[in-house]
Amino acid sequence: MRSRSMLSATAILSLGLLPTAPLPAQRLNPVIDLVAAGKPVFGLYAPANRRARPGQPAPPADSMKNMSQLAAEALAYKKLDYVFEGTMEYNFDQTYPPFTEFAKALHEGGALSKGKAPRLTHPLF
User: Fold this and answer.
1) Which residue in 60, 66, 75 sits closest to 106, CA to CA?
2) From CA 12, how far away is CA 100, in angstroms rounded?
3) Do residues 105 and 70 make contact, with C-beta atoms less than 8 angstroms apart?
4) 3-state SS track over 17-83
5) C-alpha to C-alpha distance for 5 and 20, rounded to whole angstroms
6) Which tens digit of pLDDT belongs to each residue from 75-115?
7) What is the distance between the alpha carbons of residues 101 and 107, in angstroms, rounded to a whole number?
8) In the list 8, 50, 55, 101, which could disulfide-bond 59, CB 3.0-4.6 Å?
């Protein structure tokens, strides 16, 4: 009887010491978690200033928003999973500086939640 009790106690202790599967950590980019779970992902094209079109007058200068205002407008949509910024689809040398300015404005506007595990609220694609 005593050996059976010792064996049971050893088995219980051994099972308690076995490593358990770690819980999946939240990723910095929540879109990865959504895709991995097979859930839909929704995004919005980043807000931008109107550009002059051929044959039409240029938009008034006072209607132009700075990058901080455009970033705040993008961050105002709380139900988005990501923001798509497509200015670099042509002429990298010309479009990289405004893209970088917009990305910095998103960061400064709060696109990265700071907490126990940092997480992007609006990843930039």
Assistant:
1) 75
2) 57
3) yes
4) HCCCCCCCCCCCCHHHHHHHCCCCCCEEECCCCCCCCCCCCCCCHHHCCCHHHHHHHHHCCCCCCEE
5) 25
6) 998 888 999 988 887 788 888 998 999 999 999 998 888 77
7) 10
8) 50
Q: Residue 118 corresponds to which tokens in the numbers above?
A: 């940092």
Residue 70 neighbours by CB under 8 Å, 6+ apart: 46, 47, 48, 49, 102, 105
pTM tops 0.70, yes or no: no
How many residues can be counted in the chain? 125
Q: What angle do CA 48, 104, 29 make, to 5 degrees?
A: 95
C-alpha span between 71 and 101 (Å, rounded): 10
